[in-house]
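ok so for the tutorial part 2 we go from a plain amino acid sequence to predicted structure tokens. step 1 is just haveing the sequence, like this:
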Amino acid sequence: NKINGELKMPGKLEGKIAVVTGGNSGIGEATVHAYAREGASVVIMARRDGQGIEVRDKVRSLGGTAEFIKCDVSKQEDIKRSVESTLEVFGKIDVLFNNAGVAGPGNFPNETFEDWSYILDVNLNGVFNMCTEIWPHMVSSGGGAIVNMSSGAATMGFSEYMRSTTGRVPPAAYNVAKAGVDAFTRYIASMGGKVNIRVNGVRPGQILTPMADREGTGEHSLKKFFDATQILEGTGYPEDVANAVLFLSCDDSRFVTGEIMNVDGGMPVKL
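step 2 — the prediction. this is what the tokens look like for a chain of 271 residues:
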């Protein structure tokens, strides 16, 4: 391939079809661009039409290939329809990044069962349903790579001092969902060896995303907690996680599966 007369080296995902859930902003958006730069055709799945279409159009303006398909991963019928639409357009799926996620304002024992159920539906059940729907198509096409979004919340507890210093902690449902994602990642990685499907995860820490900065302060909502527990100083950005996801999605990590990669500045408080 040549661009402006110059030879272009094949990208790390050249010819691959990649699906990114929650690809409309934050880490998902950064990963969409990382995938597209490396030659993948990227399907952005998200609930917000405007943001998803904007990301799609930005990728196209930079010479990449992208489609947007509206999808709420808490709804199994949405996942089924979205995967079918992807296959109609591209014929296969090689890479899946299960990134879509939500948190909530409550904390145990004051979080509601409705909030608990919804957080698990998006963060854990959505991962299960998307993997279940895509798995046979990866098998039939000879294999693939799956990366699941976890969190440092999957492995950490907290002291009363840590909670009071921060002013807030995630709801119990979020920690439980992400711990479940870790366990599910290891489980299906075990099933994927014989069919050439690698499955890994990423655990971000202090990554400045729109979800982490709901109040628009320009800082992570748990900044005080992270600043007290990180080895490295400062804030991480979506691109830092996207680079890790790209590594786990391409042949650079061909001998890596069943792993959860921490992208957190080094946090020695992990339990």
